[in-house]
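Lab notebook, design round three. We kept the backbone fixed and only want residue identities now. Task for the bench partner: fill in a sequence for the structure below.
Input structure tokens:
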């Protein structure tokens, strides 16, 4: 899942208005923030395998530290504690940790059975990715609901708050549809695009979120 994770981050602004959208995205996407780094270091493995599922040409051979339920719960609590320290609100721990763990739940729905509970465990996955139309229907509906929730929970203070937000939403949709089924040239490209893409998107979100006021 890709834009579905951003949908959850957008929607979370309503329950965590004091936390930057950048932090909400980083939480919902923490698994995919760590994953390209761990793949680049050779700690986790992925293979290019066109047709692995209809939706993705990637075979997630092993990713127990970035994508197992146990490790994501651990990272979630740590991430939540950091957020709580930054905004001086301990209630945020549960929200931030839930966002991190939501990544596992959404990937479990979309992936074929390759999602571990803990390193070495059985692997689970409901395989939504076996159908491109079903994947698009679910993710686009989630994304629309998330964007709508964020747009209603905040108000643009200036042109940056309005247009950088709109451009971000448009860009995510373009990336999403442009990537369906097209295999990357090699794993190095997956790692570089994964790391650089996440950094750019999170900084971008931090920027336009600063130009919007939370209404709650
Ligand atoms: Zn993931």
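Proposed sequence:
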């Amino acid at each position: 899942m890709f834009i579905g994770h951003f949908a959850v981050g957008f929607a979370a602004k309503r329950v965590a208005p004091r936390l930057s959208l950048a932090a909400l995205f980083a939480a919902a996407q923490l698994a995919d923030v760590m994953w390209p780094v761990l793949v680049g270091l050779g700690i986790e493995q992925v293979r290019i395998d066109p047709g692995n599922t209809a939706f993705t040409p990637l075979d997630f051979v092993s990713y127990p530290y970035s994508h197992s339920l146990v490790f994501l719960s651990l990272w979630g609590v740590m991430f939540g504690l950091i957020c709580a320290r930054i905004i001086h609100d301990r209630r945020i721990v549960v929200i931030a940790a839930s966002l991190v763990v939501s990544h596992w739940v959404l990937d479990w729905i979309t992936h074929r059975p390759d999602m571990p509970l803990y390193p070495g465990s059985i692997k689970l996955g409901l395989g939504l990715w076996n159908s491109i139309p079903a994947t698009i229907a679910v993710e686009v509906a989630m994304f629309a609901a998330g964007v709508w929730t964020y747009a209603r929970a905040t108000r643009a203070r200036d042109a940056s708050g309005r247009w950088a937000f709109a451009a971000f939403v448009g860009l995510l949709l373009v990336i999403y549809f442009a990537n369906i089924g097209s295999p990357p040239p090699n794993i190095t490209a997956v790692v570089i695009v994964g790391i650089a893409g996440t950094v750019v998107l999170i900084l971008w979100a931090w920027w336009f979120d600063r130009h919007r006021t939370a209404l709650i």
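Keep this in mind before ordering anything: Strands lie at 45-48, 58-62, 115-116, 123-124, 154-156, 212-214.
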